[in-house]
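User: Run a structure prediction on this.
Assistant: Running it now.
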Amino acid sequence: MILVNTDYISGKKFEMLGLVKGSTIQSKNVGKDITQSFKTLVGGELKAYNEMMNDARALATKRMTEEAERLGADAVVNIRYASAAVMAGAAEVMAYGTAVKFVD
């Protein structure tokens, strides 16, 4: 499966199959949430939240790819990501794009 954030793939012609998406809502455990809130007092990178968001993007991408595979897609083009805070310490991440099938 080819995944790109452009609306084309060099050397490939394709037909669009439709929109595919994947999403997840992730949160950190209470202990990490408390330690990260202390970090906001002194500043710096919130590594636990950074890790949480990286994991969430990976899972959303995996779910989007699985949906594309169910459609018989060879690739997903024009991939985009969106995120939103759901509550303190929890975020939704969505990956979406257009599933395509290569043609000769």
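The radius of gyration is 17 Å.
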